[in-house]
What does this fold into?
Amino acid sequence: MKLNERSLAFYATCDSPADNSGFLYKRGERHTAYHRRWFVLKGNMLFYFEERDSREPVGVIVLEGCNVELCDSAEGFAFAIRFGGTKSRTYVLAAESQAAMESWVKSLSRASFDYMRLVVRELEKQLQEMRQGLAGGCGGTREPPGPWKPKPSGSEERLPALPSILPKENGCAVWNNVPGAQRPPDPSGCGGLDEEANPRPPPLPPRRRVSNNGEAASAGAGSPSTFCRLHEQYSREVARLRQDWQQRQRGPRP
Amino acid sequence: PRVPAVLKKRLVKLVVNFLFYFRTDEAEPIGALLLEHCRITKEEENVFSISFIEEPERKYCFECATEEQCQEWVEALRRASYEFLRRSLIFYRNEIQKMTGKDPLEQYGISEEARFQLGAHRQ
It folds into this structure.
């Protein structure tokens, strides 16, 4: 299957900050020998390079629909990225320390696009509820407003624009925006201002809709309880795996 | 920019930050485009293009059946990158923190995750 490899390589090597990086040992596909590679995690893509200063990645693992588990291995500090499906490969990796292993398992477990989308939807919902509570005279908010003081007229509530620091956070990211805009494109397409000529609030994160040509992957229910449960699940799993691993340890680390 | 002379009919599927394309009668995709650091441009009627930051003159053009469909795709694709999602998250996090004085990620125990931080020094 063709991929826009140049774009992938660009994403891997551009100076946008990585979510995790470091040396890991990767077990070969056919032979069980481990090779030390430099790994860079960006978003839902785990790139690996032959050397830390290699100009291009050797390969990439797309972290959607996978499970990250600890594993029994003579190598120690080993963990696996497992995909469903009969044709899918399991990637076995090994870190160089307990701390590194835990850090990688944690960051890989949360790397999927779906996970990020879940968190965003949760926050979006919270913010919406807060704003609705404010518009209704602040009686309906869940959270105490804190330093915010209620204004007499609801229409004075100015929905904030994105903080100006955002486009600089990731020098490459501005490219994806409408030119000249300091924020993501407006979903309704009717310009950047609302009725009161205030800057329109940033659009809600993408709703995956069914298009004529196919359906994009959809995340779970997106309700707070789903998110909380999912989160609980992740933390319990990590805690349990850690416990298992510690119990299986014999003797000093190599 | 002009629509290229040869147009091939493809089934196109947006899944997370990838745009897959298929021959209309096949189950396996021919290829995929990773939608990070790309620009989605509305071209002439029914047409949009995708180009990538490292090769801006190269455009992948797509012609849709209707203008409405074209607009839908443009909007969907502009939001399709992981990096866009990350920016949205940081934005909402900041807004909620400003309104409540509390970091909404704390209750989930993920406020220290490098992934959710603003700024260049996250390692």
